[in-house]
Write a structure and sequence with these properties.
- It comes from Rhodnius prolixus.
- By secondary structure, the chain is mostly beta strands.
- The protein has two domains: 22-107, Single Sheet (Outer membrane efflux proteins (OEP)); 110-368, Porin (Beta Barrel).
- It is built from five helices and 21 strands.
- It has helices spanning 4-14, 93-96, 124-127, 161-164, 225-229; strands at 21-28, 31-40, 43-46, 53-54, 57-67, 72-83, 97-108, 112-120, 150-159, 169-176, 199-207, 212-222, 242-254, 257-267, 271-274, 282-284, 287-297, 303-316, 321-338, 341-350, 365-368.
- The strands form two sheets. It has a 19-stranded antiparallel sheet. A two-stranded antiparallel sheet has the order 15-16.
């Protein structure tokens, strides 16, 4: 039996700032348990009050495996994030604690893995290529938003190296069950931006031996009645039976160099929820076009400078609008003292104009952590 004094040593070692670390706490008779976590002490600076102030947090999780037979392994993962920027006694379970992952499944030799629970949506596969900036990036990857980020109730199949026949050729399939006012999780309290009907997605990737990778993904998810008509019966913008997301990405990752670019389109999926004063509100965008690019170099002494460009342009046909909801240049760097401790900073030069039709904030922002 694992003793408490082992955990007393392991957990503080896991929670080193700025890095995700894992420690094996049990490995016997085909059963394995790893704990991992990190603490990020972070402060944001901006004239935009919503992006100014302390944003520290901690993450803690575990991964477990059990050998069923020579070809089948059962596995599971759980991870939670705990906000550290609130006052004691002001705890809000929906705001201060986020369950990021909670799934379990089976790994079958050469066949692949299949699991169910809260996991990353398959429409994120292309966005992941550029979601590597020190702080921001991947702005159109949103949790519980049509498989573009971490999502609830997903059945995921992943196959690596195409049944063991082609190195570097990977594909995946995913099904998501409905999360809306008719399901047990949150009911009518679930935000419009985080509802969904039944849907599915797929992804295909090839990574060559020289470090060049290419990926493509597609997802189609039914939208809910509330997302088209709201709870009060009023029509919303961006109506449609389905939300769709497709994306492609290209990367090079070798010789201490990482460069990547992605292009993606979302239909009836981006929740803009914005307007300029005195104008009708845009709820969902009919179409969102996304382009992101990033370049990084990892020096041997631990420094990784980063340069990125991120933009997303949303189209609202109902109100005849077409403008950016995200557009900035990112300049940043990470310095790793060792594998367990690092510091970083990122400065985002906001390219949004003050005449933006969605009322998107145009202030620059800086993160230090």
């Amino acid at each position: 039996m694992m003793k408490r004094n082992i955990l007393a040593v392991v957990i503080p070692a896991l929670l080193a700032a700025g890095a995700v670390n894992a420690a094996e706490v049990y490995n016997k008779d085909g059963n394995k348990l790893d704990l991992y976590g990190k603490v990020t002490a972070k402060h944001l600076f901006s004239d935009n009050h919503a992006k100014n102030g302390d944003k520290s947090y901690a993450r803690l999780g575990f991964k477990g495996e059990t050998q069923i037979n020579s070809n089948i392994t059962g596995y599971g993962r759980y991870e939670a994030e705990f906000a550290a920027n609130n006052t004691e006694g002001a705890y809000n379970s929906s705001k201060d604690v986020k369950i990021r992952y909670a799934f379990a499944g089976l790994k079958i030799t050469d066949f692949g893995t299949i699991d169910y629970g809260r996991n990353m949506g398959i429409a994120y596969d292309s966005l992941a290529y550029t979601d590597v900036l020190p702080e921001w990036g991947g702005d159109q990857s949103n949790a519980d938003n049509f498989l573009t980020g971490r999502s609830t109730g997903v059945l995921t199949y992943r196959n690596k190296d195409f049944f063991g026949l082609v190195d570097g050729l990977n594909f995946g399939l995913q099904y998501q069950g409905a999360n809306n006012s008719g399901t047990l999780n949150e009911g009518n309290g679930r935000k419009l931006s985080r509802q969904n009907g039944d849907g599915w997605g797929t992804s295909l990737e090839y990574v060559s031996p020289v470090g060049v990778g290419v990926v493509a993904n597609y997802a189609a998810i039914n939208r809910t009645n509330e997302q088209n008509y709201a709870f009060g019966g009023a029509d919303l913008t961006g109506q449609g039976k389905k939300a769709e997301a497709w994306g492609t990405g290209l990367k090079y990752n070798a010789n201490n160099i990482y460069v990547a670019a992605i292009y993606s389109e979302l239909r009836n999926a981006s929740y803009v929820d914005g307007r300029r004063a005195g104008t009708p509100k845009t709820d969902f965008a009919d179409k969102t076009k996304i382009f992101e690019a990033v370049a990084q170099y990892n020096f041997d002494f631990g420094l990784t400078p980063s340069l990125g460009y991120v933009q997303a342009k949303a189209q609202d046909n109902t109100n005849n609008r077409n403008d950016y909801i995200t557009k900035y240049v990112s300049v940043g760097a990470t310095y790793a003292f060792n594998k367990n401790f690092s510091v970083y900073s990122e400065y985002d030069i906001n390219l949004i104009k003050d005449t933006n039709v969605y009322g998107v904030n145009d202030d620059d922002k800086v993160a230090v952590g």
